[in-house]
Write a structure and sequence with these properties.
The protein has 420 residues and is α/β, with parallel strands linked by helices. It starts with a strand and ends with a helix. The radius of gyration is 32 Å and the shape is elongated. It contains eleven helices and 21 strands. Mean pLDDT is 76; it is low at 3-13, 92-121 and 358-363. α2 packs antiparallel against α3.
Amino acid sequence: MLHSIKRGLGGARRWYNAGSDDFYARLGVQKGASQQEIKKAYKKIAMELHPDRNPDKAAADQFAKINEAYETVSDSEKRQMYDTYGKDYAQAGGMGGGMGGMGGMGFEDIFGGMGGGAGRKAQKKTADTRIKVPVTLEKIYTGGVEKVRYARNIQCPAGQAAKPCKVCNGSGTTIRTVQVGPGMIQQMQASCQACNGVGNVVTGQRCADCSCNGTYVKRTVETIEVPIEKSMDADEVMVAPDKADEAFGAIPGDLIIELEVKSSRMKRIGNDILVTQVISLQDVIGGCTLNLPHPSGQTLQAVIEPGSVTSPTATLNLKGQGMPLSGQTFGDYLVELHVTFPKMNEEEAKKVSEALGRPPKADKPTLGVETESVRPAKRLETLTPSDVEARKEKSQRQKERRKQRREQQHQQQGAQCQHQ
């Protein structure tokens, strides 16, 4: 499941719902989820909301609700009662007191007491994988799904069958006693030699038909579907949890997906679209119709009336023909004109000068290639170069603010990973 790191509490769109009345929804799992899936979901949420990791008051309130749900659905008897009576059972007090014994547990207690007995350390996490996904402006305009192939390491069947090390009880460390003097001893913690500090050991045989070469990890190519929302930011970053490289004795990191808009004639400025149109002086003076590309796939037609353009670097504004916003609102479509002047000798230039005082021909030529579907631009205004520059500067400021927010979010995530 993908989520954007620019939305929701802590900067990410949540796959769980701590405020839901449904305990399974709070943990972000299906009603028929296994105990292993429930534990995994709870541990992932604890990484984000536990008070030892997140001092925010709202996070603490949400974690209390998460604990209430976990205490119920992680216990087979309580879960059966909850599945039978639902919310009525919760109101009757059959849940064991909500927070129960979890309320005072520390972050390491949660991760030490699940899936391997007391004293088990939190698993290491592999590095996140970053990929860039090229998309067209047309795809961002209409929305859709982009299928992306990327390479990652996955565990082979032998590695997936690993069990907690019996020597260190899955902690990855052992305690040994050393005599440092007469009647004096000292206990020292060292990496477990039996599992090389991983905490897990492979009890099965090496794969006979596997390319892992005894490493229990092999390279593969996977396909992931990236949802493209209408008019989403070109620099949007999405996260697919646990989709980075797998490694023996570690949990996989996240796949971080960055969108990259393919270069085209149409440029996006915030919610506006900008195109450059070369036009002759004759067409500017006499008027013409412009056939322009549009991300909808249609042809956008703009009519230049005789005498309406008074600058060789004028920019036309086709109101409401840009990127879609909320509801039926759209940005604008900007056409930056580059007027070309004809080559003339002195006599020809004199005739043109005299001709400028006379009205242009009634028939106006149509420029550009017209597609089968045409959408007329009804509202047309002329912008000054300073107007266009102001729009570009505004878009750049918004982009810088988004970049700063992403960097802050990555720093917070990096600080969390250091505690693992």
